[in-house]
Amino acid sequence: MSKIYNIGIIGGGVSGAVVALQSAKYGIDTVLFEQEKSLVNGPPFCHLHAGGNLYPDISDEQCRILMKQSIDMARLFPQSIDERPTFISIPKTEKYEVEKITSRLEMLVAYYTELINEDPNNEILGSPKDYYKIYAKKDLIALAEKPSVKRPNSADEWMSNTIKLIDHEKLKSPVILVQEYGWNLFRLGAQAQLALTKTEKCNLKLNTSVTNIKDVRDQNLDYNWEIVTGDIVYKVNYLVNSCGFKTGKIDESLHLNAKRLIEFKAAYVSKWQAIPGLIPELIFHGERGTPNGMAQLTPYFGDYYQLHGMTKDITLFENGLVHSNENEVQPEFNEDINQKIHRVWEDDEINTRTKNAIDFVAKFVPSFKSATVGGPPMYGAQQIPGDDPSLRVGEVSFPSKSYARSVIVKASSALTVANKIINKIQEENIIPTIHAQSNQNILLDRISNDEIDEKASELAIQRGYPEALSRLLIKKN
Ligand SMILES: Cc1cc2nc3c(=O)[nH]c(=O)nc-3n(C[C@H](O)[C@H](O)[C@H](O)COP(=O)(O)OP(=O)(O)OC[C@H]3O[C@@H](n4cnc5c(N)ncnc54)[C@H](O)[C@@H]3O)c2cc1C
Prior knowledge:
Helices cover 30% and strands 22% of the residues. The chain is α+β, with helices and mostly antiparallel strands and 477 residues long. It folds into two domains: 4-43 and 186-258 and 390-470, FAD/NAD(P)-binding domain, CATH 3.50.50.60; 70-184 and 260-385, D-Amino Acid Oxidase, subunit A, domain 2 (D-Amino Acid Oxidase, Chain A, domain 2, 2-Layer Sandwich), CATH 3.30.9. Strands 4, 5, 6, 12, 13, 14, 15, 16 and 17 form a nine-stranded mixed sheet that branches. α1 runs parallel beside α6 and α4 (137-144) crosses α5. The longest helix is centred in the first third of the chain and has 20 residues, at 99-118. The protein is globular. It binds flavin-adenine dinucleotide (FAD). Residues 10-16, 33-36, 41-47, 49, 209-210, 242-246, 265-267, 379-380, 382, 406, 408-412 line the site of flavin-adenine dinucleotide.
């Protein structure tokens, strides 16, 4: 008789990979299907949203959840975190008042302190008193006179390096430096894939597309689902749908429906001249979807920079956001966007959009005008549960017995989803009660830094990106 798995997970993005990792560490038998060559190969991520400061309009509650979930994920995958801060500013042309962001910061410091009181190991964003620092115009003028520092060690040193490059006359005063860090997807993917390959508790099926699912819950068998991949059938007790923007496809085959949006977006890879000292991620806020949408410059190793511009001719796309309806469980993009998802980009469009992004950032960082195209875009489609496109925290839903649908909007929610699913399978008596549940994962902790370096570099190259994107700006000890 063929093996019966406790859990069958469809989709090896960050969500599916973390469900598999957390399950395997408790000895739960899983099978994980990913249609691509490697794990965490879907839409990109580069920013650890530890406080939601990139989103002036979200609720305090979403900011707190983003902070907590980001800390949890950073503790699970420390080797993927780039410990450089984020510079936050609002251009004078924008309607937002700086107060909209500064007014939340003390609440976030208090919450961060609470998290550290609960567990001192949560202190991964530095001391709470250093979580943010506010700079008025006169502070910036003074810091511009200080020499640049190759590897800054204080908020003032980061700001001093930054302010010499920025046209701060265009920005409202004050500006902010906050401890929201960089997040390297190649390193996270590498660590997850190495750990799952080594454990006997996960049958990792890469290059394997799930083509059908049979619901046998009412047949009184020893298992609940048959997962079909080509001509092989896998028997599982619990089904996890972590197909990202394709979760609707699985729902469709199970005759389930749920409101959902899917959105296609892209960031661009650029190469710039060497500059005297490291800089933080740079954020110039603006109203999304207008010609002045937010500009974001994310520094990587080797003078590479990833760029977002929240306008239709840079990160966003005409018809890039589509929704489900009563007859269409899985929303569909038009042909043009489908081709891009499947890696068919015209060179002209890569060049034009990357150059648009460079010019967009150069409005605030004039010398960035000399940057050039540094590689293919980093792009993908993601899901947003419900019908509110500004939602930033999605987790998991349990629409029927023995079935979970992961609906994360940010990569940081992956561990929360995994924990909720593991609780659910205990409730359903699919596995015995786990007495000592914790977030720590021995399977991940066993992977050495050298192994991560090697695998992350292999993944970047395999996906057509410069190898430098797999490295951290600030190497871990
Ligand atoms: C441009 C952009 C920038 C972003 N930046 C950030 C950021 O800075 N920080 C952040 O936290 N989040 C960011 N996000 C969001 C983040 O990328 C997503 O929330 C996250 O990657 C979703 O992970 P997932 O595992 O749910 O889905 P996915 O990563 O999409 O994984 C789903 C997987 O399922 C597989 N799959 C689908 N169908 C099948 C099938 N039938 N059989 C087998 N496999 C299948 C797919 O191949 C895919 O690998 C960004 C998103 C975009 C688009």
